[in-house]
């Protein structure tokens, strides 16, 4: 009977970014939960399996693929996310009920505490199922972005804010560094007349990673064109960026 679940942060997609803690846990466990991405994003499922293959090095293990639906678009964003999480919770609950192993690992992209709903879902389910769980931190894409671009994410004595497009859109002026996740809307272009630098990366940490940096006004169009090209070629885009006031 299942006793413990580990929510394992796997970093931005390449095995080299696994922490030692995540690696030794993956070595020890025999069973893993993996969100099953279909279509264009199937590669994200494959990358998780690649990580398992590298760490397991030929040892056998089992995976349960979770057929999570894509979030439905709609006017009431918060409501839609709530419905989506409910559907995912049902699928996860059902999968956990049938597990015979005592422990299972759930591979989570990046860090499980950042823009990822599984931790909240798990709090709900674990209480109902009297299941204990642990969260293993992972390296997040924005940390790798900063390192690869050799840029400090923070400025002296100012905050660093993590945004999604919905929150960034409401900002009138950017006066301190901001990191933007999950932006499908080129929200950076709303700020192109402000004295900002952009550090932009796609598929960060992977073989296809690509970076652009410069004054936002100068390279905003170039990034927009590149986004279109990457989306067309690869079918999906994983991008993260930092906006920093020019000094
Ligand atoms: C659902 S959030 C999950 C974030 C994740 N928990 C983390 O710590 O990176 C997905 C968003 O994270 C960012 N992201 C995650 N991995 C990335 C990567 N390898 N390259 C670029 N952006 C990435 C993108 O903004 C993407 O839309």
TrEMBL record:
CDD domains in alphabetical order: Precorrin-6A-synthase
Any Pfam family: TP_methylase
Keyword S-adenosyl-L-methionine belongs to the record: yes
GO BP terms: cobalamin biosynthetic process; methylation
Molecular function GO labels: precorrin-6A synthase (deacetylating) activity
Pathway it works in: Cofactor biosynthesis; adenosylcobalamin biosynthesis
Record's keyword annotation contains RNA-binding: no
Residues of the Tetrapyrrole methylase domain: 4-218
Keywords of this entry: Cobalamin biosynthesis, Methyltransferase, S-adenosyl-L-methionine, Transferase
Database matches in PANTHER family: COBALT-PRECORRIN-2 C(20)-METHYLTRANSFERASE, PRECORRIN-6A SYNTHASE [DEACETYLATING]
Protein name: Precorrin 6A synthase
């Amino acid at each position: 009977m299942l006793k413990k679940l580990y929510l394992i942060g796997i970093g931005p997609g390449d095995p080299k970014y696994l922490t030692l803690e995540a690696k030794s846990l993956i070595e020890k466990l025999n069973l893993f939960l993996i969100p099953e991405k279909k279509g264009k994003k199937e590669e994200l499922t494959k990358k998780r399996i690649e990580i398992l293959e590298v760490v397991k090095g030929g040892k056998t293990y089992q995976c349960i693929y979770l057929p999570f639906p894509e979030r439905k678009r709609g006017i009431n964003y918060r409501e839609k996310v709530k419905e989506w999480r409910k559907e995912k919770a049902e699928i996860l609950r059902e999968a956990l009920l049938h597990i015979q192993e005592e422990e299972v690992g759930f591979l989570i992209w990046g860090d499980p505490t950042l823009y990822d709903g599984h931790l909240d879902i798990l709090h709900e389910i674990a209480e109902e199922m009297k299941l204990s769980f642990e969260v293993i931190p992972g390296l997040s894409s924005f940390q790798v972005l900063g390192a690869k671009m050799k840029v400090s994410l923070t400025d002296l004595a100012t905050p660093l804010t993590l945004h999604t497009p919905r929150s960034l859109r409401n900002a009138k002026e950017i006066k301190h560094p901001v990191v933007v996740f999950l932006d499908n809307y080129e929200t950076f272009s709303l700020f192109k007349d402000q004295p900002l630098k952009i550090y932009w990366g796609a598929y960060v940490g992977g073989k296809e990673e690509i970076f652009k940096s410069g004054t936002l006004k100068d390279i905003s169009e170039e990034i927009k064109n590149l986004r279109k090209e990457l989306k067309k070629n690869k079918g999906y885009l994983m991008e993260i960026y930092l906006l920093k006031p020019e000094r």
